[in-house]
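Ticket closed. Logging final result for DUF624 domain-containing protein.
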Amino acid sequence: MSRFFNPDNPIMEFIAKIFDLILLNLIFIFSCVPIITIGASTSALSYVTLKMVRGEDPYIWQNFWKSFRQNFKQGTLIWIFSILVFIFLGMDFYIINSQNTTLFAVIRMLLWCVCLVALSVFLYVFPIISHFVCSTTQALKNAVFMTFGHLPYTLVMLVIAGLILYLCACSVKTFALVVVISGICGFSVVAFIYSILFDRIFKKYEPESPDNIE
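Final structure:
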């Protein structure tokens, strides 16, 4: 029995990680309540989950708050920019959907491609600003570069996001299930899975002496 409660026991480590993810999820949700803080909260979520993936500093609240404060301005600017981009794309869809010509059908397909690229860039950019010290413009450029430079990872992330959206739109029951899971640990678990991918990507760009990494 004493072996079971040993902190180094794989089962206990797994249980501890689950509790950490639940705690992180709750902190993330509460920090997103003002809506305008979603960008900074997302970058902080990525910062903490990447540390969890790498087995580093386990202090959830301290690390979350540290990243939230450091990336508040940058994360908020990118969040507002992302909202404007998707509002613009939504207006384009509204206009195009009112037309039934072959030309507009082609434009609609191209617009879907643009949406996927935009989504991919915003999936990358918040982890980038949480992990690397760079300007907002450079962070967006790096996000675009990584989107296409690591296409297999990008496709995996899009599939995960697409599956979640599909479950939300599939039926009322699956939507409710997604909402319940998201309230418990959904956001942090997805961020943790993404951070496994980001860990492999970011290591390619980290200097041997990480002086420019937070």
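Confidence is low (pLDDT under 50) at residues 210-214. No further action required.
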